[in-house]
Amino acid sequence: MDILVCLKRVPLAGGTLILTPDSRDIETKHLGFGISPHEENAVEAGVQLVEQMGETLTLLTLGPSDAEEQLRSQLAIGATRAVLIETDGQEWDPQGTAAALVDAINAEETKFDLIIFGAESADSAGYQIHIRVAHALNRPIITNVKSMKIENGVAVCDRVVAAGREHYEVALPAIVTVRDGLNIPRYPSVPGRMQARKKPVDMKKAEPRVPKLEKVNLALAPSKAKGAEVLGNGPEAVPALVEVLKKIGAF
Amino acid sequence: MILVLIDHDRGELDQLSLRALTAARKLGQDIEAVVIGKEGAALAGIVGEYGAKVLHVANHANLTDYTPMASGRALKDLVEKLKPAAVLAAGSPRGNEQLAHLAAFLDLPMAAECSEITLGSPHHVLRARWAGNLIESANVHSDLLIASVLAFSTEPESVNGGAATVAEFEPALEPQDYAVKVLSRDAGESKGGVTLVDAKVIVSGGRGVGGPDGFGQIEELANLLGGTVGCSRVVTSSGWRPHAEQVGQTGTKVAPDLYIAAGISGAMQHIAGMKNSKTIVVINTDPEAPILSYADYAIIGDLHQVIPALTSAIREAKG
Fold it and tell me: Model pTM?
């Protein structure tokens, strides 16, 4: 089976975000980079399927040339090769990003049986690129998948909703987006890291389009932090809390 | 006219959709609503109460459960007929997904998670990014605005309107639109009862609970307060509790009347999912835990002592 996993390089922001002087981006001078949380599960799922069924796992990203670092670290997990669509470092809008991914996928000789995305990016939260790619490739898409098996050319997936688990089945070729909890992503081994250095990363260029969702600037959200009234220490503080709960009508 | 997608689960209203309806009213135009699937027709009363004059009902033999691509096609058909200025939906996983299918069908931009919308040329939105920690100011270059309304950014307000007029239509679905549909559903890991989204009270446990057994006392307190159990990401990734109970950016975003966080230090991802709760109570041994700055009240102490004491004190007070 030939699998493609789409990734996004994102800064690993800890507690507090700082903006660049022009307020258009997060200041990343002092930050490391990684991939979005659910994407680690996407790569792990791809590696497991290739281990079971053979063939290839390709990684695809759109971003600055530095995104090679994220591709190499995921190649170390067990992917076969990677494709990097190099941008000018500016953030692209969802339509532009989806179109560039689609062009890159169509340019591949391999016709991927399964394309996997993380359920959402850590940074831009646009909730649409995977769906635009599915429409452009005319493929079915199942989102927010928490368990997945491939049986006789059919993706058998569950997603978790408030009411329980929903069960889906769709014939390949298909697209799925996966969530944290699908699997436990492995760490790269030392030999894996060594091999990753030699694995091919194809660099491509794409021309940016005029964004239709045009970022003007970013601002820090007003903090909801208010500071707690400390009622006391240990069980002695319980009567004070019971009064608070009575006051707000909790019981 | 503004068209608002009212999401429902097998006829049961999604409460966030009422907030989207309230946000839509602020744009100063007529409001019409749309539901996907004929079971949604029963919502004409409530959507009228919240200001929609008409409820469009997409009715088709293959619209029997959540079928997001078919929702997108139905919305597209309706948009082409009614030519609204904007289509809004709740900024929930399902709201965002159905709108994204609409946007993909029409090849138009979509702005997700908007806390403020100004119609114009271009349209302007403020939208949440980075788990709600950043607000993006953005222009949307398109005649039709497709946008989802950030969960909990607007309080639902009724206008006491009469029931909306029901207008059924049959979308021209293609077979690929319903290739992906729910084949079955079971209770899975959820125990039934109050779900996280609907709960008025949530008692959440984190790493400090120490293991799956420690959740007995959390459950007991939650039951006593008529609420439900939540947890942090580390708890589900350690396999102590089911994923359906995870609160946060990668789990469920909640805003109950009362949120009790026990043994949770408060990673950005967790805070993003619960900071809109009305009253937040923290029980933690660490007075410096980040979650304390988001709480209204805190007890510094070991939850294994505080929670049983709290449970028996509430029992006593209830008599």
Answer: 0.91
